[in-house]
Specification:
The structure is a homotetramer of 313-residue chains.
Chain A: H1 11-14, E1 36-39, H2 49-55, H3 58-83, E2 88-89, H4 96-111, E3 120-121, H5 124-153, E4 159-161, E5 165-170, E6 173-182, E7 188-203, E8 206-214, E9 220-223, E10 228-234, H6 245-250, E11 254-263, E12 268-277, E13 281-283, E14 285-287, E15 291-293, E16 299-302, E17 309-311
Parallel strand pairs in A: 5-13
Antiparallel strand pairs in A: 2-3, 4-6, 5-6, 6-10, 7-8, 7-9, 7-11, 11-12, 14-17, 15-16
Helix pairs in contact in A: 2-5, 3-4, 3-5
Chain lengths: 313, 313, 313, 313
């Protein structure tokens, strides 16, 4: 008899493999990206440059820009020296090292279009290279403008999920619960949630990885102003019915959460995902209330309570 | 017996609390934002910088830019002075104050890429700082470009709601009516409206805040060219049936209006909300017609009549 | 008996008035905008600045930019002269007129961040104004960047409608037909069309403007690669059934066409509208085929035939 | 008897002609664009400039910018020479050729707002032209910024389709299969596919081009993390039932694939199309598995296997 009931062939649908999981390998990373490695194409064929530049962290992004800026100026500095440093009016450097830096700073002043003019190009070759460099500079910073806007306007959400997923009495049964909150002032509306469970099981004598939906008591809300607690009632139809924590651990359970919302402030549809592993499940625990009315009767939402769990009994 | 009929559990759905309201605390502000305070996270964790810069008022936005501009230039002015003011060719200042301002204006000319050149950098350190500053300047204004575009292209609406919501005879019964108009030349199409009512009531001996939908006679129109009057017929199914103004005031009624539309000009879905409190309700009043045909037969929409209410009998 | 059958109350829905039309006043202009005048608000309250700048014609747009550029430079030129032209190093003008232009060109060189430097600021006041002006310049052109991008990326369509709408035999009855074509290389997919008719009629002894839908034989296509001919079959259910051209003219008929499509190239939903008046209706005419196979078997779409109508018998 | 069964009138819907195909002319190009030529309008009426600049290849795009840059500078160089080269302070050229280049480089320094200042404008006419040119320069690069952002943020996909479409045993029948993979790190979700077949057939003694849908075993998946194999089961309802490769070749078959997906990273709906011709069909071949588990249990997707086909028996 299989471990859980009501199996549905969700493998294709969620884009996962049906091979059994070894070494506690998760399907989704905590940030919701699929835990997959990609190979077999030369790096330049992936054509992810824009996506990468837009999705990488800020410090890395500025580092990339700084490095490109230095490299391009070095390249042009070398070019101006090859043409002849004497064509840079006002460059005073006597040693090759000083002459390189004169050309380097002239290049920086050209590509950024500052153009103080205490160093200026003379002669056809140097002038045409400088004219080309200033055009390139404007294009490069046009690109930077696009990238910066792309980074800011990207439909990202800052939905924060509770660290744990708890199992506790719910109405007259047990319920599996986690909760989430919006870290931004953006209004999130028409929020929909889907929950799945995946684990190893033996089917026809073969070890397999199976995927089942976990029905939510409420899978859609209109507006997310406060926090939202997702509840999967563990009734007879649930794959988790009458399972112990030991059962769950042995089957290498992973619980997948898929969220879809409309960001009212920027008119964009947002998708976000996360997953919980066995160690994130707490038995007989419930979440502490996250909001209260202050002395003026106004509702106060306290983000510091998001992960606050009260273990019962 | 509860005060109103046909209660529906809309608390979760609208993201509001079910605690009774004290001191006339509203659920939604007039501009449609939830009347909620947020706490419990260090300020930098909210990550609302972009949202804030895009949604704040224009004068505050320009003030922020001006202050940042002054601060950054001050910072670089200090840096140039530390390296040594003698490395700024053409800087004539004798006193520390004048030397600071020489460096300050050189910094401004560098970061804005004006670069007149009557002051110019000399020596490695000053030149490299200036090269860095000009790059920073271009990035900063790339950012400003993105922010300005973000501010303009944001899916905002200028739907204006009538100041009052009136109750007056409608067909053979009474009706609750408010109206709205588009202040922009943008075409709004496929406009949908939802109306809710919330008030305090005693359920099972406990004071609670309840939420009910108010059915509209017509909740969707194709195009908003003129004004649109929303009508909730107060029939036997309405929570407002046979209620007096005194009943309404005592229950601390708030009427919530949620509007969704498609902005044809910018291809964006727009959501807007507002709410009316008891004091905004006028009994036995009706709205004055907002448009007329001029002498050429053309329809003229007169915005000044939006709030114009005729109190009857 | 009313002039037409199967009347539906579309007045609200299309956002039009139900007053009868005099002097051949149309509901929609040919470009699809509602033929409505707006009044009653101070001009600055309409808050249409961005919409206007983005939707106005190109020549007017550049004129606005040029005028603003000249005005701002004039303002700063006056300011520099008030502070004292002697604080502009290198300004040679002797007459007030020459001094104004020296300051004007210095201003232009500052706001555009060219900063040649043959004229340069001296003293605190002039330097601080110049620093402010260069910041303003960068912001202004950041704004221009946003506006230009907003203009280009706006979800506009270049769907062209046939000049005439024809009535000719269709299958075993008559049909009302017009056709359309995409002037751009953008792929338009999932195109939907709706047709309405509006005219004066006497209802209960009162002259009114009525609106009816005209059912289309096919109101949706997947892809618009060639041309699309819209056909309203004039059967017994049609308001046009057994009507003569004289009947149509007398009732001051206007036929309204609403089109919705998805622009595949820019991932935007596009709406466009047009309307035909009585004079645009041609009886017993049919459209000439718009495409043919060339000698290589490739399909050629000939845009010049869009309005080409063959009048029969 | 017609060649295939269950014909549906998809001609209109897919926007194709029903004329029979000669010389192996395809309906869709491999990149999914319709194989149609357009004529009959003056070139400037197509108004595709923005679309063209945004969709053309990168090298062509930069070439266009370079050429425009050179042309505009040439134009201004000529203008400055006409006004009089003596109004360019610091221009040393003696020959007309040198004077042209002095003006050309001054123009480049002005339009890019570098403004070194070793050449500077003198006199009203030259100064006003330079002021205008610097404004134009900023506008032009504002335009470039918009174009670059438009190019990057365009909803393009890099879905790669297998080179061949194979026919091989599937369950207890035959199946027509091709597969696809996402070359980008963008998350594609809610992916839908439609497959059509088109070929020549004789209907009522006339040769025609017909279009039929090919039902897919699964036409929608939630997430595309790995590869997706599309399967059309060739059962009795399929137009391909009991057809040989010779039958298929004779009828000049083209198989059309339409894909729709939501790009989670940029919140955009993406459409992509492709088509296979008879030569792309392989009989009794099946696709090699594209992913495996590495030694750590992590799934590895190997793009190099996309086209890897194993011919059986």
């Amino acid at each position: 008899m299989p471990f859980f009931k009501r199996k549905i062939q969700f493998n294709d649908d969620l884009g996962f493999s049906s091979n059994p999981v070894v070494k506690n390998q998760r399907a989704l990373n905590v940030d919701g990206t699929p835990n997959i490695e990609r190979t077999g194409l030369p790096w330049f064929k992936f054509d992810d440059t824009y996506t990468k530049l837009v999705t990488m962290g800020w410090s890395r992004f500025f580092l990339v820009i700084l490095i490109v800026y230095l490299l391009v100026n070095t390249l042009f500095a070398v070019t101006y020296n090859i043409i002849g440093i004497e064509h840079l009016n006002g460059a005073m450097g006597k040693t090759p090292r000083d002459q390189f830096f004169d050309a380097f700073f002239f290049s920086a002043q050209t590509i950024s279009t500052v153009g103080y003019g205490h160093i200026s190009p003379q002669g056809f070759m140097t002038s045409i290279v400088a004219a080309f460099e200033s055009m390139l500079g404007l294009l490069a910073f046009a690109l930077a403008t696009g990238l910066l806007y792309g980074r800011f306007s990207r439909p990202t959400s800052k939905v924060s999920f509770s660290k744990n997923i708890v199992i506790s009495p719910y109405q007259d049964k047990m319920g599996l619960m986690c909760r989430l909150v919006n870290l931004r002032r953006n209004s999130l509306i028409e929020i929909e949630a889907q929950m799945y469970i995946t684990f190893n099981e033996i089917v026809d004598g073969k070890s397999k990885r199976s995927y089942y939906p976990l029905l939510l008591e409420r899978d859609k809300i209109s507006v997310l102003s406060l926090n939202w607690t997702l509840v999967h009632p563990i009734n007879e139809d649930s794959p988790l019915f009458e399972k112990t924590l030991a059962d769950i651990k042995q089957a290498q359970v992973e619980i997948i959460l898929i969220l879809k919302a409309f960001d009212d402030t920027f008119s964009q549809t947002i998708h976000t995902r996360t997953s919980y592993q066995e160690d994130d499940i707490k038995m007989n625990a419930r979440f502490e209330m996250m909001y209260y009315h202050n002395s003026e009767g106004k509702i106060v939402l306290d983000y510091s309570k998001l992960d606050s769990v009260i273990v019962e009994g």
